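--- STAGE predict ---
source: upstream dedup step, 1 unique chain passed
mode: sequence only
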Amino acid sequence: MIAFFKDEVGSAAVLSAMPDAAMSSVNLVEVVTRLIDDGFALDDIRTAIAGTSVDTIGFDDELAFDAGALRERTRAHGLSLGDRACLALAQRLGVPALTADRQWAHLDIGVEVRLIRD
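--- STAGE serialize ---
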C-alpha cells in the first residue's frame, strides 16, 4: 500500500491486486504512519484509503497468536510485527502476501510470497 500511495516501483503490482486485497489493522497503522512521516495529511490518507477496494481486517486474538507463532520461524530473517501480521492474515485467508521486502522470498512458512519489485 505504501508503494502504491507513493507511486514507487511496484505500485502497478499493488494496483493489480487491489480488487481482492485485504490488510490487517496493524498494517493499516504502518501505512498511515509512513505516509504521515512523508508529509501526507491525515484526512488525505483517510480519503485515499477509503477510495481503494482494500478490506481492513481487525487484528483479533487469533491473528495475534498466529503472528506471534511466526516469530520463531522468521526470526533469522528479521521480520517485524507488521511483517508477521501481514503473513498471518495471508495464511488465514489462504492468499499470497505482497511485499517489497526480498527477505520474505526466503521464507518457508506455508504462505505464498509475491515480490512487487524485481
